[in-house]
Specification:
By secondary structure, the chain is an alpha/beta fold. 40% of the residues lie in helices and 14% in strands.
Length: 199
């Protein structure tokens, strides 16, 4: 399939490593669709790589033509809004769910909006796990979408070459894998729980 006719989407839960994946794809040679509205901060010192219009895809599908041949970041909840008349390759980043929650909590603490509630934390854990399962099942039923799941934890715990090899093969086999490997920054792996995937 001609990459210029495909929209590459980096997706996953918020705080699951999608920004790092976007940076890796850029290093590998794929152009990104970003707008720079959300700038780097303490939570994402290397930037967010976001494109605001994806949040209103249900009402505004005009940006999709500009996304052909490029990579764009889209949180998992928004994937349901993708129209079926385009071709998509989704690189879905999975991360240990407790790390995701810890990273989200740290972001809220920095912003002064976090309220301690252990019950809510456990409820959120259950909801997020169910959401990931549901969205991946939905993706599997879409004829217009191909999907590759990658493991953020394995990437940061010595398995980057394996993961990058899978990404390269999935996206056509002509990426600069050495440059992609150089982007993997273990110093930003700050909420460690040790287990792979969202289990």
């Amino acid at each position: 399939m001609n990459r210029n006719e495909v929209i590459t989407i980096v997706s996953g839960l918020p705080r699951s490593g999608t920004s790092m994946l976007m940076s890796m794809l850029e290093a590998g040679g794929i152009s990104l669709l970003v707008d720079g509205v959300r700038t780097a901060d303490e939570d994402n010192p290397k930037g967010y790589f976001e494109f605001e219009r994806v949040k209103k895809t249900k009402q505004d599908k005009g940006w999709l033509d500009d996304a052909k041949g490029k990579a764009v970041k889209m949180i998992s909840q928004l994937l349901y809004d993708l129209p079926p008349d385009y071709r998509y390759k989704i690189v879905f980043v999975r991360r240990n769910i407790d790390e995701v929650l810890a990273s989200q909590k740290q972001m809220l603490i920095r912003r002064g909006t976090y309220k301690e509630d252990d019950v809510a934390d456990e409820k959120m854990r259950t909801m997020l796990l169910a959401h990931v399962d549901q969205v991946l099942k939905w993706i599997g039923k879409q004829k217009s979408i191909e999907c590759l799941c990658v493991d953020y934890n394995r990437m940061l715990q010595g398995g980057a070459q394996e993961q990058i090899g899978q990404i390269n093969a999935f996206l056509g086999g002509d990426l600069n894998t050495a440059a992609m490997s150089a982007v993997v920054d273990k110093t930003l792996y700050r909420q460690r729980k040790g287990a792979p995937l969202n289990t």
